[in-house]
Amino acid sequence: MQSYRKDTIIAEDKGNKLDKLIKAIQATKLDSFVTSLTDELLDHLRKCIVKANIVTEIVPVLSRAVEQFSVVDEENLDDFLKAIRTELEKAIKEAKRKNPGKKVRISLK
Fold first, then answer.
1. Cβ–Cβ < 8 Å for 8, 50
2. Mean pLDDT highest for which of 1-5, 29-33, 90-94?
3. CA angle 36–33–58, rounded 5-degree value
4. Do both 41 and 58 map to the same domain?
5. What's this model's pTM, rounded to 2 decimal places?
6. pLDDT tens digits for range 29-68
7. Could you tell me if 58 and 11 are in contact, meaning their C-beta atoms sit under 8 angstroms apart?
8. 42 lies in which domain range?
9. Which of 35, 16, 13, 15 is nearest to 24 (CA)?
10. 45 plus 60 within the same structural domain
C-alpha cells in the first residue's frame, strides 16, 4: 500500500519536479537537498499529499502512555503496550472523524 501511494504521488508529478529532490535524497547530497527546497517545490509537495488523500495528525500518544507508566518492566510491559495501542486507536478514530474519507496517519513527534 505504501508503495502504491508513493507511485501515485510520483505519477502525479507532472514536469518531474520531485525527480531532483528524490535524486538528491538518494545520493545523500544534503546541500543539494536543502537548495532544492524552494517555496514552489514545497507547494508542489503539499498538493501531492492532498491528491494522495493523506492527512497526518500530531498526537502526543507516547506522552499519554508515559503518564500512566513511569517505569516499565517485564511485569507491566504488556499493559504499557496495550496503553499505547489504545491511545493510537483513539487518535486514529478521532483523526478519521475530523477528516472523513482521508487516509490518516499519526505522527508520534
1. no
2. 90-94
3. 95
4. no
5. 0.55
6. 666 666 777 888 888 888 887 777 888 888 898 888 889 9
7. no
8. 1-52
9. 35
10. no
